[in-house]
Amino acid sequence: MKLLSTTPKNSKPTATQRSMRHKNSTKPSFYMPIPQFYQCERCLRLMIDVAGNNPSQPPDCCGHVMKHLLAQTPDDAHHITLTVRGGFESNSLSVTVGQPVHPMTLPHHIAWVYLHTFQGGQLKFMAPGEESTVMFALADKDAYVYCDRAICKGRDCKFNCKRGFCVWIYCNQHGLWHYSL
Q1: Hey, is 111 helix, strand or coil?
Q2: E strands, the chain, in order
Q3: Average pLDDT for residues 80-91, to the nearest whole number?
Q4: Which residues are CB-neighbours of 164 under 8 A, at least 6 positions away?
């Protein structure tokens, strides 16, 4: 087994160590439109439409029309906390629901969380009994950051480079919530 040595923080990658840092100095644009969510009321199958189809003609499942899930904005009781960690090469976005935490029991829990990013989206399912926190790994253009700018250094970082990202959270009792970064 060959061990790779770590390189100092400020060193440039060699030919064998390609940097994954996004080379563009401007914020990426979004590739896909805002998704639409549909759920079958019989089998609970979830469909995420990222093609921008007309929601007036929802898809079919189990011989019936799927329900179009309409999002609401979370209120103070359903506080959403977003935490971005990382740097130029990669970073992550952590989503926590509730203050202190959302119930995660079988009759009342967060079923899934969807993150809409520059390059597409990520879906994470959650099971009863788990914590009400989910983490999304970001890389390539989704990891785009302004961390070399003065505003991003220190405690005042607002991670405005993620502006436009959206999070959808589905609670089995309260329905779909939408939160924009």
Answers
A1: strand
A2: 36-39, 46-49, 60-61, 64-65, 67-69, 80-86, 90-97, 110-117, 120-125, 133-139, 166-171, 175-180
A3: 76
A4: 30, 118, 180, 181
Question: With 0-12 CB in 10 A as exposed, 13-18 as middle and 19+ as buried, what is 25?
Answer: exposed
* Residue in this structure with the two tokens 């160590």, named with its chain if needed: 17
Closest listed residue to residue 95, CA positions, set 71, 115, 120, 111 = 115
Residues pairing with 130 in the sheet: none
pLDDT at 144 over 60: yes
Q: Which domains does the chain have, with CATH numbers?
A: 34-70 (no CATH), 71-180 (2.60.40.730)
Structure tokens at 162: 């993620």
pTM (whole model) above 0.70: yes
Q: How far apart are CA 56 and CA 133, in angstroms?
A: 33
